[in-house]
Amino acid sequence: MTTPPPPTASATADLHRVVDAVWRMESARIVGALARVTGDVGLAEELAQDALVAALEQWPDTGVPAKPGAWLMATAKHRAIDTFRRAQNLQRKTQELGRSLVQDESAEEDWAAALDEVVEDDVLRLVFISCHPVLSREARVALTLRLVGGLSTDEIARAFLVPEKTLAQRVVRAKRTLTAARVPFEMPTGTDFTARLSSVLEVLYLIFNEGYAATAGEDLTRPALCQEAMRLGRILAGLVRGESEVHGLVALLQLQASRLAARIGPGGESVLLADQDRGRWDRVLITRGLAALEEAERTARDALGPYALQAAIAACHARARSVEETDWARIAGAYEALAALSPSPVIELNRAVAVSRAYGPAAGLELADALLGVPALSSYHLLPAVRGDLLHSLGRDAEARTEFERAAGLTRNERERALLLGRAADCGGSAGLPTP
């Protein structure tokens, strides 16, 4: 019998791409289901990773199965059974798993179909576990991208510009924290659900914002993070259909993401919203964002929440054909409502910009100046950037130059720094007002 030749480098690369794509689509379901039966998120991920390794080892010889997700789940389940059988002190769990999970190979489709009946609950529980308030913000972001997003440790580390070892330790500590806190793998209820949902939305928002405006490095944006946040948001919206703020967040992310291509010039430089070619805005994302905003408004029990209000502001930009045709008075009013609902100096700064557009730069500068003594904004580069724009619009160019230079010294993003230094060097030109 002739031994088949080893796969070529190209074939191996193609297979790895297939496995990676399957993992991205199926990992949350697999880890969620395993966490449900094991009660241990860390163990669940280990078992799922074992199945992934098995796929990389076996699929080159056997080919990709017709139902790759079901294959991975079956393999992970068998790994779980073996693990519990080896653990004598978990004999009871072994018996429970044996009754529910040990199946004849011919019955694979049967238990895969049975799993589909609970898959939505499994994924949703996994989202809420990953964003549990017992974890730090950084840990929640890392764990969500790892367990729910299916991203590798290296991918997450590169996205947030931290060493891979640091990110790996963050994920390990997060899992240990959940175990030590004995966090149950179940959905919260009542007021606990509301608190936990806020944590979930915050994490998705943080992931998106890091992609939309990178805090450091040479790249202005990291679109892959924006895409991942939107994907996870859409999953959540499909699982928690009656929550207005979930739809509000999805609307906000899609409306903001519609501008990504127009935010960067030919040389990678930052392009302010006022100078963007609106023909490059993604109309598909705008349509989806507006539809999500309508759903947020329809499901709102009372007034719109913070994310839906921000989406309404983004919708004003999306509907306008130019900066001049934008309903700035409406935006300023929305920021005022947002500030009353969720007080924040950053919101006040954005309101100052909107007020300057609606009622003149002097009115906006008055609001911005009131924020100069706020400790939270002492190292926030956008405060002097906004003041620089407003001062320039009032003809106070020397002061504007100082503010732009101060802003450039505070930002850690190279593209933003270059833009701000350019504004400082040419603040006598037609830089124009910023747009929140």
UniProtKB/TrEMBL annotation:
Domain DUF6596, first and last residues per copy: 196-296
Pfam families: DUF6596, Sigma70_r2, Sigma70_r4_2
RNA polymerase sigma-70 region domain location: 29-88
Keywords linked to the UniProt accession: Sigma factor, Transcription, Transcription regulation
The keyword Acyltransferase is assigned to this record: no
InterPro entries xref list: DUF6596, RNA_pol_sigma-70_dom, RNA_pol_sigma70_r2, RNA_pol_sigma70_r4_t2, RNA_pol_sigma_r2, RNA_pol_sigma_r3/r4-like, WH-like_DNA-bd_sf
Keyword Transcription among record annotations: yes
Transmembrane intervals: none
Family assignment from sequence similarity: Belongs to the sigma-70 factor family. ECF subfamily.
Protein name: RNA polymerase sigma factor
